[in-house]
Specification:
Blueprint lengths: L6 E6 L5 H17 L8 E4 L11 H10 L3 E6 L16 H13 L8 E7 L6 H13 L4 E4 L2 H18 L19 H16 L3 H14 L2 H13 L3 H17 L7 H16 L3 H12 L7 H20 L3 H18 L2 H17 L3 H15 L6 H16 L3 H18 L2 H17 L3 H17 L3 H12 L4
Parallel strand pairs: 1-2, 1-3, 3-4, 4-5
Helix pairs in contact: 1-5, 2-3, 6-7, 6-8, 7-8, 8-9, 8-10, 9-10, 10-11, 10-12, 11-12, 12-13, 12-14, 13-14, 14-15, 14-16, 15-16, 16-17, 16-18, 17-18, 18-19, 18-20, 19-20
Length: 478
């Protein structure tokens, strides 16, 4: 039988706690040995020393290690730590690590389950340590403990490790923490508002989601601006979405964050994607190829962003009829995703390749790709990817001369896009339904959907979409 992998504890502390760090590591090792016959739960301690050299800001690579951790132990004593060059104004690397861990607590899909902070006794701790302890005492007293010495640190950590054995065997409940970093920027509230907004949109509460996302941009950074830009693009407001991506880029360039980073690459790629959507395909291709140069090909997290850029690049190449380069981009992304085994990401690649097969009239293969995606995603919460797969299913069957078979796919795509507040997707589904009904000889239904498509595209100032809907209305009797 294969042994269970250990749960990862990220250890965050300034440089004056070398002895205490060794105490933590020894305590965890002793706990694993002592509990080996009683529990299948074991732990491993990781820290900044697990991060290899990188061309980007070192703290960003450390933060990504935190995102893969299940627990965090943060320790403070006398010194606050050195300034990490953060665009968020964190004044020490340990502070940034702590707040990164707290952000991970609020994300349901992330492994972080608990953050424990230890304040060790010191005659004159730095002012930021005093202020942080006061905040935690007022709002989150169960997340920290005062520690007299190394012996007490060992005892209290042992108690925490026993508690965590229970935590890891239960479902994660996201926890939203209210603490201000030394900069005064409310990064936790901004992130929580962004997560709330995205969840509300997923639940069909589009306007409430918009309000939360907009408020998040007033408090947060590039991540919040990019999330709002994604919403605006789905809503068909490309000008506002472009402005939001530019605000994200400006924050990256104005801050101390390294230009050669996944965040910077993602921001430039998001803006390039908007250029593609408004028909500036050559500009989009150039911007996307430049965005790829900002990524380290050996960086695991950067590879996720690289795949998303390859998706956009393939779509742009497709628009200029360079199907060979489009296919290469999609297949490169698929190869990376198959190695990591992430099913939703693999499905995204299959959807992209299915679009190419439709262009090449390989309709059987396109249908197979679309059906595989729909079957894979059927047990997962609905996303725009689900809707795209349903659209493909309808398109393929329409091309195959089976419009009646395409109707259920179109109806599901319409319902999903309306639930997600994706007005562009909704307009595409309306057009598809109008086409299917027209091909099936059902004039009344075709006219109804085409008219709705025309009105929606007109409201979004999508001239091409409106023209396509008007063409259907003008040719209903043919």
């Amino acid at each position: 039988m294969v042994d269970a992998l250990p749960f990862r504890i990220f250890l965050a502390s300034p440089g004056d706690l070398e002895h205490e760090r060794e105490v933590v590591r020894a305590c965890v090792d002793e706990h694993n040995t002592r509990r080996s016959g009683h529990s299948s739960v074991t732990y491993e301690v990781v820290g900044w020393d697990r991060v290899r050299g990188t061309a980007r800001r070192p703290q960003e690579a450390i933060n990504e290690l935190i995102s893969e951790s299940h627990f965090m132990v943060a320790m403070f004593k006398g010194t606050w730590g050195s300034e990490p060059g953060s665009p968020w104004g964190y004044s020490s690397g340990t502070e940034e690590e702590l707040f990164t861990g707290l952000l991970e607590l609020g994300r349901a899909e992330q492994p972080m389950r608990d953050v424990w902070t230890a304040f060790l006794k010191h005659d004159s701790p730095a002012d930021p340590i005093v202020n942080l302890r006061k905040q935690m005492s007022s709002h989150h007293s169960v997340m920290y403990e005062a520690v007299e010495d190394a012996r007490e640190l060992r005892n209290k950590l042992t108690e925490r490790l026993l508690t965590w054995e229970v935590v890891v065997n239960s479902s994660k409940i996201p926890r939203h923490i209210e603490l201000l970093p030394s900069s005064g920027r409310d990064v936790l509230r901004a992130a929580n508002l962004r997560l709330r907004g995205e969840k509300l949109i997923d639940l069909g509460q589009t306007e409430a989601g918009r309000i939360a996302l907009r408020e998040a941009t007033n408090l947060g950074g590039p991540g919040e601006h990019l999330a709002y830009a994604r919403f605006l693009a789905r809503d068909g407001d490309f000008d506002a979405a472009y402005t939001s991506t530019q605000q994200a880029i400006d924050q990256i360039l104005d801050g101390a964050s390294h230009l050669y980073s996944p965040l910077a690459a993602e921001a430039f790629a998001a803006q390039a994607g908007l250029l593609r959507r408004v028909g500036r395909y050559v500009d989009a291709i150039g911007r996307l190829r430049q965005a790829l140069t900002l990524l380290d090909e050996n960086d695991a997290f950067g590879q996720k962003i690289r795949c998303r850029i390859l998706d956009e690049l393939g779509l742009a190449y497709s628009k200029v009829d360079n199907l060979q380069l489009a296919r290469r981009s999609f297949e490169d992304a698929l190869a990376v995703r198959r190695r990591t085994g992430n099913e939703p990401d693999i499905c995204q690649s299959l959807v992209n390749l299915a679009r190419l097969e439709v262009r090449a009239e390989n309709l059987k293969m396109a249908a197979d790709h679309a059906d595989e995606v729909i079957k894979t995603l059927c047990t997962m919460p609905p996303t725009a990817l689900h809707a795209n797969a349903e659209v493909l299913g309808a398109q393929v069957r329409l091309r195959q001369g089976r419009p009646n078979d395409g109707l259920p796919f179109g109806e599901r795509a319409l319902s999903l896009n309306r639930q997600l507040g994706n007005r562009r997707g909704e307009a595409i589904a309306l057009k598809l339904l109008a086409q299917c009904y027209r091909s099936a000889g059902r004039r009344v239904e075709a006219e109804s959907y085409a008219q709705a498509c025309l009105e929606l595209n007109t409201s979004m100032h999508n001239t091409q979409g409106a023209q396509e809907a008007q063409w259907i209305l003008d040719h209903l009797d043919e």
